[in-house]
Design goal:
The strands form two sheets. Strands 7-8-9-3-10-11 form a six-stranded mixed sheet, with helices on both faces. Strands 2-1-4-5-6 form a five-stranded antiparallel sheet. By secondary structure, the protein is an alpha/beta fold. The chain has a domain of 69 residues. The protein has nine helices and eleven strands. The structure holds adenosine-5'-triphosphate (ATP). The site of adenosine-5'-triphosphate (ATP) has 11 residues, from strand 2 and helix 1. This is Glutamine ABC transporter ATP-binding protein.
């Protein structure tokens, strides 16, 4: 009998990253993410969660370590001068949404969505528009196709940002505190969109302080503190009782208890 082997989707090995000589943020981080997993990264403020996502997105240089994607080398520090090497083809297959809206303000919603597919992939405009309209429909934003970002609520902007990332058919989505800057009443509409993607098995890595969301979206939770993985397991193991509140205080409390 032959055993089928599927490599990890993302494998981070011994990742070190500092900002300048004094701020060492990631100190030998190891993470392995299987295909189809939804990994939530939690931890105290300043622990390096955003930095981890930015590194995986290829936005930051690393000091040492390596990342593979689907079993293939993706990011490494190699060569005589330890230069960071990033496979740009692989990078294009990763989508990221940030805490603060990163839509182009001078472009309409539809233009925001079709820009990268047309420019980066050379997709025909009519085809990109059709795909964009279908996504906007799915996210309840069809009526906003010709609006500009300034005319949208924070929740709508984040949903457009997610739709824009999906236009490039990512194999992995990274969400970095995408609801942290939103008014509380707008959080649910963005979380619902991400839950919808999860239901379709989109692999994702999510940084959030929202414990309700973490519990509902995660197939695995990684507790990251002091630049390393402190705990890694199913949500009920890492997050404890569902009665815990959904606040930053919770994380800080858990961290202090474990120190
Ligand atoms: N570009 C930068 N230059 C210098 N220091 C930085 C830079 N980006 C982040 N840092 C520092 O690195 C540390 C880790 O930051 P990071 O944003 O990755 O943490 P985090 O776990 O996401 O925190 P939070 O939960 O508050 O967002 C912090 O001390 C931060 O001040």
């Amino acid at each position: 009998m032959t055993m089928s082997f599927s490599p990890p989707l993302v494998k981070v090995e011994s990742l070190h990253k500092s900002y300048g000589p004094n701020i060492q943020v990631l100190k030998g981080l190891d993470i392995e993410m299987k295909p189809g997993e939804r990994v939530v990264v939690i931890g105290p403020s300043g622990g390096g969660k955003s930095t981890l996502l930015r590194v995986i997105m290829g936005l930051e240089k690393i000091d040492s370590g390596s990342i593979t994607f689907g079993g293939k080398p993706y990011i490494s520090s190699a060569g005589r001068d330890k230069k960071t090497i990033i496979d740009t083809e692989v990078r294009r297959s990763i989508g990221m949404v940030f805490q603060h809206y990163t839509l182009f303000p001078h472009l309409s919603v539809l233009q925001n969505l079709i820009l990268a597919p047309c420019k980066v992939r050379g997709e025909k405009k009519e085809i990109a528009i059709k795909r964009a309209q279908a996504l906007l429909e799915r996210f309840g934003l069809a009526a906003k196709a010709n609006s500009y970002p300034a005319q949208l609520s924070g929740g709508q902007k984040q949903r457009v940002a997610i739709a824009r990332a999906l236009m490039l058919d990512p194999k992995l989505m990274l969400f970095d505190e995408v609801t942290s800057a939103l008014d509380p009443e707008l959080v649910a509409e963005v979380e619902q969109v991400i839950l919808q993607l999860a239901a379709q098995n989109m692999p994702m890595m999510i940084v959030t302080h929202d414990m309700w969301f973490a519990r509902n979206i995660a197939s695995r939770v990684i507790f990251c503190a002091g630049g390393a993985v402190v705990e890694d397991g199913p949500p009920e193991q890492v997050l404890g009782s569902p009665k815990e509140e959904r606040t930053r205080d919770f994380i800080d409390r858990v961290f202090h208890i474990r120190q």
